[in-house]
Write a structure and sequence with these properties.
Number of strands: 6
Helix content: 40-55%
Largest sheet: 6 strands, antiparallel, barrel
Strand order of the largest sheet: 1-2-3-6-5-4
Structural class: alpha+beta
Radius of gyration: 19 Å
Shape: globular
Oligomer: single chain
Number of helices: 3
Strand content: 25-35%
Length: about 190
Amino acid sequence: MPDQFEPDGVAYTAELPLRWAPLHSVQPAQAEQWLHEAAALLRALAVIETPLSDSDRDLSSPHGKAMERLEAKLDLALSLMMQLAHEQAELPAPHAAILRAGSLEWTGEPIPEPGTLIVIFLHISPKLPHALTLPAQVSTVDPREGGVRIRAHFTHLNQEVEEWLERTVFRFHRRAIQQQHSRQSAPD
């Protein structure tokens, strides 16, 4: 896989369930709906992954203790709903992928032709079974040992989705670095 610090900026590398479909054209109304859903999904994921700060977690007050219990119940309900959704959802096969704010690279088949307009259905997190749906154009198809590397640049993005993609990729990248440092510093 390419270096995570390519000139394209910060990247998140993972095995991600994804699929794509060819597009003849991107209809403005359809693109607007995909982008609205993408922004909502990325915002929701940020909220789900944001831990409560210590100031929000004042356990010395009855209100703080009630909020802690409510949060635990919501976490359990969300976890059970995610488990049920994953059991009923047919996720696409995971692919070695590199997600950047403006592009996605993956190894896999079927292989689109360079220049092809596609829609990508990317399951960015197991915490949300809904796919991030983004229009893209295939820029390169690179046969390599172990498979064909496909790179597609997202098209028709609005500023809100661009910002949320940047935030999300940065957060995932930072978390991966933290996990790597934790594994390296952990005693054997």
